[in-house]
Amino acid sequence: MTPSTSSAITLNINGEKYLLPVDHRTTLLDALREHLDLTGSKKGCDQGQCGACTVLVDGRRALSCLQLAVAAEGRVITTIEGVADGDQLHPVQQAFLDLDGFQCGYCTPGQICSAIAVIEEHAAGWPSAVTDDLRPDAGVPALGAEEIRERMSGNLCRCGAYVSIVQAVARAAEAAGSQDKEAVA
Fold it and tell me: Which of 184, 177, 102, 178 lies closest to 143 in space, CA to CA?
């Protein structure tokens, strides 16, 4: 008996469940784009080097071109299409818009998904390669330009909108910090 090379899987994407028959070799990116018509995530290098395909899986960044769709079953997947709350843009989306954090827009969905995770990782106290003080009692480092650049380094922009991207991430992080302080008060 020959083993099956396909399965019917259920993917939880942007709060909706999709039953999808896929070949076991289908990447999450191809499932999103080709099977579900969620074309916000882009196919750039198809090797995990450009970040254009970045989505959030269980709240963490994932390169959807490197993850198999069958491995995403049972996980919570957020694509750029699910980031906004109805007509209300996510603060990162709004900051990218306000500060021209994009030019051609091809890398923008991956940049925005990555930036959302960067802000959450930073707020949780996760260090980066440029974090000076790694002692647990040092607290959360400032999210300055150097930290943002390092944390966003897996996302390439061929147009070179990096200055505006860094500014947009900083503004969105500042807005998120303000919201966190209001929630505590």
Answer: 177
